[in-house]
Design a protein that fits this description.
heterotrimer, A mainly alpha (316), B alpha/beta (365), C alpha/beta (352), A: 316 residues, MetI-like fold, 14 helices, 0% strand, B: 365 residues, alpha/beta, Rossmann fold, 2 domains, eight-stranded mixed beta sheet, 13 helices, 22% strand, disordered C terminus
């Protein structure tokens, strides 16, 4: 309590919050349902969720959004500006830019989701183990993490992508998994550090001691008491990271070392569209994939912000 | 802090003209403060009036949420706004309503005239500056002292609050001091500009008893020496009995009883005060039965209608639940109580609290 | 009161290593508990008082096996001497593991100070109080647990219908009742209470103290009541131990400690406690100690109190006085001072 205001607020904090409130309203109010309540009242949450929903749908079923074939190039209509027939115009190969953008969502979303799942799983397991057990195990895991952490994600991606080039014509999934693997290997340490930090904060709490005094086993302590109270910051950062991973994938593709034909990727298309001459001749080729990429990244970052505000208003 | 509330544009007396009116330093009249939070409006202070004279120690006694700390913040002008708003009342210092002053004018009162010490000395001191520098800063900013004079002044102040080897420790940092020593440094800062009013908000709650005794003795000594008005905010009935001249008991943002220190311990006139005294264990008694006050202090966003204490009060009747809260009225000379049944409470207390120390009765009563 | 020993400690020591530098080398020891011995009798309350850093909380954590002692003995069900004599039903707490340890955890439980950090904020009250049964399934069959939890809620004075609420929906005093319910769920014989009321509002403290006294009568519990508030400790305790810098400096009946203290530290401590009675103002003798408590990483030689003691002589800096019975004017009780003599600090009024 540094400032007098803190004292004032904490005075109210000690009030029996639910005592009278409960009469007419819900009897049961967990911290998660409180968080959901405040999330629901946040317009940022609804805007970002709507956007994400659209992109998810686009990734799952692109046919719903366009009947055009993203691989059908008609050189006769190359580099045309937006028109009624091609709403986003056509590319220098004569592809329909709208169809390319729609089909490109799948790669980006897959990379974002899978990388997030991977980093969260590896990061939380490592973070939990090193935070809970401490000692030499913590020292070892932390040093390993630091080694990967010291290499910038992008630099690592460039290196790894050069070293492990995909065979010509390999499919979308295997290409995506390659990129995901690289991002996970170099992305988990930041989440592990985060998790370790929260575990160290939760561990000394007396409810953990109370369970230890009752004879609770280590797995029980971790699963019942530590994880539920340590997971919140992880959720927030993972959501924001999801957007970041999508941007990193696009950057790799832009540099020509991420996803490549036949996979359709926004980064790849942006790369082609930004070659000299094309930017001025066909700016729509650059504009639309960039716009979609930015919107997707923005949506996830906004969602992360909204979730953070809901979980812990003090972090704002 | 609302500057437009009332009396805006009132001419502010020059520094020298802050003189008490008939010995009266501070007059708080009908103060209202609320906090507008997400969960509703918390009515933290609901019509509080009291005064403070030169050289007087007023203890404001209450539990958490009673509004005692908020009162202090309102007087100091350090209420966080939003969420806190002063919605009514006046705080007169030497006759001038502080609520009508501009922020700049308030700053000139805060420190040289009214200053404050907090419960948590560690977080009230800046960890990256030496303590001597922090004390000297007060003298530089308000008195325009030069560096070496301010430093000497800081050392003298540290010596005054009995910090051993002050000259050697003037460049030490807050974390290098123990809790009691940090509280002494806070006190040195608070008295640096010779304020007329010192507000101490739970100054010893975080300290061990032996250190608490040292700090309270120091405060009493300083007050005597400088004729300060001291407002001691606390929940500790023991500390109050040792140092206070007068006591104001707060409950749910209201004063429920004010009196001189002796009569209130001998026979409390409000059921809440009576309940508190009956519920604390005493070091000097054995075989004591603690009669606890039932229930809980109210949630300030939903203060019960009628007298706010009625759900916990053994004297409560229908009138307590339906009529507006009873006003604080004089029940004996110098004693005020806000209860419909003060006389009955007093009569009961006089019987119940009649076991003071042998030989102690003739004094003090 | 039957004088049957339920828990016993001998020369209990707990050191925490101080590690510094990159290599985390041990450069010193914080001597949190430095050789404490006592017996806890069945059905009694033993108060442990002292200022912050005196090791009283560490002692509590040693008793419930949240920490392992660096050295020393702990016996349950009798004294350490009984244990060495091979008495049946006396358990060596330090050596216990496996099933023995599980049984000990049922028998010795703890209530924590801070009702805000001692309950898992993401679990319902029902889950919190039921956890003891989930960890020790033999105590209560699965189908009976919910009902048992409701009984416990009722026993500690809470509404059993609130079983599905979360801790943040309760006030501090109510949360402390929940903590107590969890502590007594397994029918322990000993409950260690670490500052159980010091975080509560004044008007609520008495409710919880009275609850603890009632539960002791109803369930025949023995309490180790660790607190810094000497008034509360006097009220609830049958016997009291005073700790300073990791050592027990005085141990005796409530009356002996409060009315006839013989150790200078106890006397100073008692004299500093403010009494809610303005008529005593200026009449109470105040012994003001100089200086601060020394660091437990580097405690003074000999008697640990000699640096602040007005009675200290040369011998005090050399020879640590043992905790042994010393005359207190009426009888004798344990005190660790070479120059122990009784002195009335608090004039006691019997109001029973």
């Amino acid at each position: 309590m540094t400032d007098p205001a803190g004292i004032a607020v904490s005075e109210f904090g000690t009030q029996p919050a639910g005592e009278e409130r409960s009469a007419g309203q819900d009897q049961v109010r967990s911290l998660w349902s409180d968080a959901w309540d405040s999330l629901r009242r946040n317009p940022l949450f609804w805007v970002s969720s709507a956007l994400i929903l659209v992109f998810l749908l686009m990734a799952a079923a692109p046919q719903l959004f366009t009947s055009a074939d993203p691989f059908y190039g008609d050189l006769a209509v190359a580099r045309q500006p937006p028109s009624a027939e091609h709403v986003f115009g056509t590319s220098s190969q004569g592809y329909d830019v709208y169809a390319r953008v729609v089909y490109g969502a799948r790669a980006s979303i897959m990379v974002g989701l899978l990388t997030t799942v991977g980093t969260v799983v590896v990061g939380s397991v490592v973070g939990l183990v090193s935070g809970f057990y401490g000692g030499w195990l913590d020292a070892l895991l932390s040093r390993i993490g630091e080694v990967f952490f010291a290499i910038p994600l992008l630099l690592a991606g460039i290196l790894a992508a050069y070293l492990f080039q995909p065979g010509p014509g390999s499919g979308l999934v295997s290409q995506v998994l390659r990129v995901v693997a690289v991002l996970v290997v170099f992305g988990w340490p930041s989440l592990a550090r985060l998790m370790r930090g929260s575990v160290l904060q939760v561990k000394p709490n007396d409810y953990v001691n109370a369970a230890r005094a009752l004879g609770a086993s280590a797995p029980r302590l971790i699963v019942r008491h530590i994880l539920p109270n340590a997971v919140a910051p992880m959720i927030v950062v993972a959501t924001i990271n999801l957007g970041t991973y999508i941007a990193v994938e696009a950057t790799l593709a832009f540099l020509g070392i991420g996803l490549r034909d036949p996979a359709i990727s926004w980064g790849n298309d942006i790369s082609i569209a930004s070659s000299i001459g094309l930017v001025r001749a066909a700016p729509h080729m650059l504009l639309f994939p960039s716009l979609f990429l930015s919107l997707t990244v923005l949506a996830f970052i906004m969602l992360g912000d909204a979730v953070r505000d809901a979980i812990d208003p003090k972090l704002r | 802090m609302s500057e437009t509330l009332q009396g805006a544009g009132r001419p502010v007396p020059a520094e020298s003209s802050w003189t008490p009116v008939d010995g009266r330093l501070l007059d708080v009249e009908d103060l209202f403060v609320e906090f507008r939070t997400r969960d509703g409006v918390a009515k933290a202070i609901n019509g509080v009036s009291f005064s403070l004279d030169e050289g007087e120690t007023l203890a404001v006694l209450g539990e958490s949420g009673s509004g005692k700390s908020v009162t202090a913040q309102a007087i100091m002008g350090i209420l966080d706004s939003p969420p806190g708003f002063i919605t009514g009342g006046r705080i007169r210092y030497c006759g001038t309503d502080l609520l009508g002053l501009t922020e700049k004018q308030r700053r000139e009162v805060r420190g040289p005239e009214i200053s404050m010490i907090f419960q948590d000395a560690l977080s009230s001191l800046n960890p990256v500056f030496p303590v001597g520098w922090q004390i000297a800063e007060m003298l530089r900013v308000h008195r325009g002292a030069n560096r070496s004079d301010a430093r000497e002044g800081a050392i003298r102040l540290m010596e005054r609050v009995n910090i051993p080897a002050a000259r050697q420790r003037v460049n030490a940092f807050p974390h290098q001091f123990s809790g009691g020593m940090r509280q002494r440094i806070m006190i040195a800062m608070a008295i640096a500009l010779d304020p007329a009013v010192l507000i101490a908000d739970e100054p010893t709650t975080a300290l061990d008893v032996t250190v608490q005794a040292q700090i309270m003795a120091l405060l009493a000594e300083l007050q005597e020496e400088r004729r300060m008005g001291l407002i001691l905010i606390t929940h500790d009935l023991g500390v109050v009995a040792d140092v206070a001249d007068r006591i104001a008991v707060m409950y749910a943002g209201r004063l429920v009883e004010t009196a001189d220190v002796h009569p209130i311990y001998a026979a409390p006139a409000h059921p809440y005060t009576k309940g508190l005294l009956a519920s604390i264990p005493r070091l000097d008694q054995k075989g004591q039965e603690l009669s606890a006050i039932g229930g809980l202090p109210p949630n300030l966003t939903r203060i019960p209608p009628g007298c706010p204490f009625n759900p916990r009060c053994p004297y409560a009747q229908d009138v307590c639940r339906h009529d507006p809260p009873p006003p604080l009225i004089e029940v004996r000379p110098g004693r005020r109580s806000a209860c419909h049944f003060t006389d009955r409470v007093l009569a009961d207390s006089e019987v119940e609290f009649d076991h003071t120390h042998p030989g102690a009765q003739e004094e003090g009563r | 009161m039957s004088r049957e020993v339920i828990l016993s400690a001998r020369d209990l020591v707990k050191h925490y290593p101080i590690r510094t530098g990159v290599l985390r080398r041990t450069t010193g020891q914080v001597r949190a508990v430095a050789g404490v011995s006592f017996d806890l009798y069945k059905g009694e309350t033993l108060g442990i008082v002292g200022e912050s850093g005196c090791g009283k909380s560490t002692l509590g954590r040693l008793l419930v096996q949240l920490e392992r002692p660096t050295s020393g003995r702990l016996a349950f069900g009798g004294t350490v001497e009984d244990l060495d004599a091979g008495a049946p039903d006396v358990v060596d707490m330090v050596a216990a593991d496996g099933n023995r340890l599980r049984q000990l955890r049922r028998d010795v439980q703890i209530v924590f100070q801070d009702p805000y950090t001692s309950l898992n904020p993401r679990k319902t009250v029902g889950d919190i109080i039921q956890e003891p049964f989930d960890i020790h399934p033999a105590v209560e069959p699965r189908q009976g647990r919910r009902r048992r939890v409701q009984e416990l809620l009722e026993l500690v004075g809470l509404n059993p219908e609130h079983i599905n609420r979360y801790p943040h929906q309760f006030s501090g005093g109510q949360r402390q009742r929940i903590g107590i319910a969890r502590g007594i769920a397994l029918n322990p014989k000993v409950l260690v209470c670490d500052e159980p009321v010091s975080a509560l509002d004044v008007s609520v403290q008495a409710q919880v103290v009275n609850l603890m006294e009632r539960l002791q009568d109803e369930l025949g519990l023995s309490y180790v009541f660790v607190a810094h508030d000497l008034s509360v400790v006097r009220h609830i305790s049958d016997r009291v131990g005073v700790m300073y810098l990791g050592s027990m400096v005085e141990l005796g009946d409530e009356e002996q400690i409060y009315e006839r203290p013989t150790h200078p530290y106890t006397q100073a401590l008692l004299s500093a406690v403010p009494v809610p009675d303005p008529t005593l103002r200026g009449r109470r003798e105040e012994i003001v100690l100089s200086g601060d408590v020394p660091s437990p990483a580097n405690p003074p030689s000999g008697c640990r109190f000699h640096t602040r003691c007005w009675k200290a002589q040369d011998v005090c800096a050399v020879e640590p006085p043992p905790l042994a019975p010393r005359p207190d004017g009426v009888s004798a009780h344990d005190s660790a001072c070479h120059f122990a003599e009784p002195r009335t600090i608090v004039e006691t009024v019997d109001v029973s």
